[in-house]
């Protein structure tokens, strides 16, 4: 029974942690409003920045949009010249998307702003705390988030 109670406490902490991550992410990316993209389009561009090239299905799964909505947002991003479409040479029916030069430049601006906000949040931490934080994130990635 002790193990079940410990797992419940851990689960509650993970739920609180993920809620806090969403809150901080929202706070840190508030500057996206200065760019000409919707929150859904930003999520797509952020996903492309971290994993490209990507298919519409991969995008839909990752950002929590339906495939038709993802396709619509991708069309808008193509019109804004923030991404590019290519065809997979091994399967011509498969569409691949990546950031365009303009999209990459925009995401670099946003990430630089987010990094400044992040650096302000951790400014008072000691080297030992930074090392512990990095180890904790690595442990979370390896065990809970499986990255």
What's the β-strand tally?
2
| Run of helices and strands | HHHHEEHH
Helix vs. strand class: mainly alpha
Helix content: 55-70%
- CATH topology descriptor: Arc Repressor Mutant, subunit A
| Termini Cα gap | 30 Å
Strand order of the largest sheet: 1-2
The share of residues in extended strands comes to 5-15%
> Which blocks of ≥5 consecutive residues have pLDDT under 50?
none
Total number of distinct structural domains: 1
**Major pleated sheet:** 2 strands, antiparallel
Shape: globular
Radius of gyration: 18 Å
- Any idea what the CATH architecture is? Orthogonal Bundle
CATH superfamily: Winged helix-like DNA-binding domain superfamily/Winged helix DNA-binding domain
Whole-number average pLDDT? 89
Q: Provide a count of the helices.
A: 6
> In CATH's first tier, which class applies?
Mainly Alpha
Account of the 3D structure:
It is a single chain. The protein has 6 helices and 2 strands; from the N terminus they run ααααββαα. The chain is mainly alpha-helical. A hairpin with a 2-residue loop joins β1 and β2 (91-99). α3 crosses α4 (67-79). The relative contact order is 0.10. The mean pLDDT is 89.
Features:
2 strands, Arc Repressor Mutant, subunit A, two-stranded antiparallel ribbon, 6 helices, globular, mainly alpha, single chain, 147 residues
Topology of this protein?
Layout (H helix, E strand, L loop, with lengths): L1 H27 L10 H12 L5 H8 L3 H13 L3 E6 L2 E9 L1 H22 L4 H17 L4
Antiparallel strand pairs: 1-2
Helix pairs in contact: 3-4
């Amino acid at each position: 029974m002790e193990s079940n109670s410990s797992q419940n406490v851990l689960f509650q902490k993970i739920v609180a942690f993920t809620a806090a991550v969403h809150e901080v992410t929202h706070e840190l990316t508030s500057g996206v409003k200065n760019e000409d993209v919707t929150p859904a389009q930003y999520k797509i561009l952020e996903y492309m920045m971290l994993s490209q090239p990507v298919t519409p299905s991969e995008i839909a799964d990752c950002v929590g949009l339906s495939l038709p909505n993802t396709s619509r947002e991708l069309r808008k991003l193509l019109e804004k010249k923030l991404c590019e479409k290519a065809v997979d040479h091994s399967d011509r029916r498969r569409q691949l998307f990546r950031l365009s030069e303009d999209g990459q430049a925009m995401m670099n601006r946003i990430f630089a702003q987010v990094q400044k906000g992040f650096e302000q949040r951790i400014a008072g931490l000691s080297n030992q705390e930074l090392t512990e934080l990095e180890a904790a994130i690595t442990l979370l990635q390896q065990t809970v988030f499986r990255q």
